UniProtKB/TrEMBL annotation:
Keyword Cytoplasm recorded: no
Protein name in the entry: Ubiquinone biosynthesis protein UbiV
Record note on quaternary structure: Forms a heterodimer with UbiU.
Pfam family of the protein (one): Peptidase_U32
Cofactors, names only: [4Fe-4S] cluster
Organism whose genome encodes this protein: Stutzerimonas decontaminans
Binding site for [4Fe-4S] cluster: C39, C180, C193, C197
Record family assignment: Belongs to the peptidase U32 family. UbiV subfamily.
Function noted in UniProt: Required for O(2)-independent ubiquinone (coenzyme Q) biosynthesis. Together with UbiU, is essential for the C6-hydroxylation reaction in the oxygen-independent ubiquinone biosynthesis pathway.
Length: 296
């Protein structure tokens, strides 16, 4: 089992970003994703900066480096930036929008199919494999049963299986909007947001009327309130055919999280239960833990 570090979903300043990756270069990771996937207004790191960081990381780490594209492409300028990303000439690209799939297919280049592509069955996977997808990151709401079913369908279609990379740790990216929720929370217009999401390195908790944590807002992105953690489900991850487990960056505690997953993949017994949520993996509401859903 390989461990991957997903792209940073929050907006950190340049120095925090560089310091974070310098630390991650020392961790037992097999794949590291770089790039901005949430909002094109976040310009602390531009494409050339990400490529420069990738060159530095390649000297400090043996991990494969992948460049992730924007999830919601809304403007011609964003499409132009996406073309530049797909033409980077150095790194494998993670396509998080069908526009990126089209660009990579036209260039006859392999790519990673990100979780926002919403691929749920073998027939959809077959189309993307034919377009050049070599690794599939299922949607975060996909259960272990759904992933196994999609693999079976793909085998029945006699299509080569791509690598499967499952989102195993971090705040779940659930939805994207043209509106910026963080700017709205500070009574700012989106076009004059003053990059206020830098004030929230792990987003803003959104509470229900009863005061319970319901979501996390992160710019235009809606995320889970709880951190998803599938470490206790390691045996099921293996059974589903997972090749990689994605750990999504957080502002603190990443070394401990990576260490825990690394220990289990090397033979340590997984915990019986963990803090956080894992309902989606069991086909239940995502905000639940398996114990709450009566599954263990």
């Amino acid at each position: 089992m390989k461990l991957s570090l997903g792209p940073v979903l929050f907006y950190w300043d340049r120095q925090q970003t560089l310091d974070f990756y310098a630390n991650m270069a020392e961790q037992p990771l097999d794949v590291i994703y770089l790039g901005e996937t949430v909002c094109s207004k976040r310009r602390a790191m531009m494409l050339d900066d990400w490529l420069g960081l990738a060159r530095d990381l390649s000297e400090a780490s043996s991990a494969q480096l992948v460049l992730s594209g924007l999830t919601l492409v809304e403007a011609a300028s964003e499409l132009s930036s996406l073309r530049r990303l797909c033409d980077n000439g150095e790194l494998l690209v993670e396509a998080n929008d069908m526009g990126a799939v089209q660009l990579m297919s036209e260039r006859k280049l392999p790519f990673v199919g990100g979780p926002a592509l919403n691929l749920y069955n073998g027939h959809a996977l077959a189309e993307l494999v034919a377009s050049g997808m070599t690794r599939w990151v299922p949607p975060v709401e996909a259960s272990g049963k759904l992933i196994k079913s999609a693999r079976t369908q793909l085998q029945e279609l006699d299509v080569a299986l791509p690598e499967i990379e499952i989102f195993a740790y971090g705040h779940l990216p659930l939805a994207y909007s043209a509106r910026c929720f963080t700017a709205r929370a500070e009574n700012r217009p989106k076009d004059d947001c003053q990059f206020c999401c830098q004030n929230y390195p792990e987003g803003i908790p959104l509470l229900s009327q009863e005061g319970e944590a319901l979501f996390t807002i992160n710019g235009i992105q809606t995320m889970s309130a709880a951190v998803s953690n599938l470490l206790a489900d390691y045996a099921g991850l293996v059974d589903s055919g997972a090749d990689l487990l994605r750990l999504s960056p957080r502002a603190a505690g990443m070394e401990e999280a990576i260490g825990a997953f690394d220990a289990v993949r090397k033979g340590a017994l997984p915990p019986l239960a963990v803090d956080g949520c894992n309902g989606y993996w069991h086909g239940q509401p995502g905000m639940l833990r398996a114990e709450e859903a009566g599954l263990c």
